[in-house]
Amino acid sequence: MEPIYANSYIPKPRSSTNQSGPRSSERRFHGAVVLCLGLLNVFLLAGLIGLDFDSVQRLQASDHMLSSLTTERDWLNANLTEMTKELNRNPCPAEWRMSSCACYLLSAESGSWEDGRDDCSQRGAHLVKFLSNFTKNETQAWIGLTDKAEEGTWKWINEAPLSVKYWQESQPDNGGGHSHLGEEDCAHIKITGGKSTQNWNDLLCKTSLKWI
Q1: Cβ(148)–Cβ(205) under 8 Å?
Q2: Are 145 and 154 a contacting pair, CB within 8 Å?
Q3: Which of 49, 132, 146, 184 would staple 197 via disulfide (CB 3.0–4.6 Å)?
């Protein structure tokens, strides 16, 4: 009896390389993800640290500015207090009177406008400017205003032009057309004790009056 042969196929086992390929790729992918997440965390942490450092610097700068402003405020308050004390004192010489942060003296004697100008100059002063009311007592006195240089152009004794005016109604009138009164080229103040600010008048400069 002849032997019978049959073909048989025995499958070969897959190599270990083919079996581990997908798993190895998956592990590499997971590792890359973990690495990216780690780097992202590092960047976020660095950013937070940078922001925190910047905030600290800004806070320190604000504290420094606040301290400087506080120091400046205290300095200004101290100076204001000292200035208030100085203002409460009378810095004017004897017999002089302080008004609107300036010293004034109503002369005891009377004379012409030029006499008043010269007397003030000898005292290191000048005839008054920009004065409406000075005293509650009724009086008339020369002030440092004249139009001697040019008729109708009134200037202060320091050549400053006249801007604020306290003329009486219808004044100045240069004598009102009465030639016997002469040229009224000098201004005086007529104080009546009231609150009126319209108390200037022009007058003949040789008239005898007190002066301020």
Answers
A1: yes
A2: yes
A3: 132
Q: What CA–CA distance (Å, rounded) separates 46 from 179?
A: 98
State how far the Cα of 24 lies from the Cα of 17, in Å rounded to an integer.
10
Residues 6+ apart with CB under 8 A from 169: 198
CB 106 within 8 A of CB 116: no
* HEC secondary structure over 75-139: HHHHHHHHHHHHHHCCCCCCCCEEECCEEECCCCCCECHHHHHHHHHHCCCCCCCCCCCCCCCCE
> Do 209 and 141 touch, CB atoms closer than 8 A?
yes
> Which residues have CB under 8 Å from 116's CB, separation 6+?
107, 127, 142, 209, 210, 211
**Percent of the chain clearing pLDDT 90 (strictly above):** 21
> Around Cβ 184, how many Cβ atoms within 10 Å?
22
Q: Where are the domains positioned within the chain?
A: 34-89, 97-203
Write out pLDDT tens, residues 147-180: 998 888 999 998 888 888 888 888 888 877 776 6
Say which DSSP state 12 is in: P
Please report the sign of the dihedral spanned by the C-alpha atoms of residue 94, residue 95, residue 101, residue 106: negative
The token pair at 144 is: 């440092």
Instruction: Give the Cβ contact number of residue 171 at 10 Å.
Output: 19
pTM over 0.90: no
97-203 is classed in which CATH architecture? Roll (3.10)
Instruction: Specify the DSSP class assigned to residue 209.
Output: B
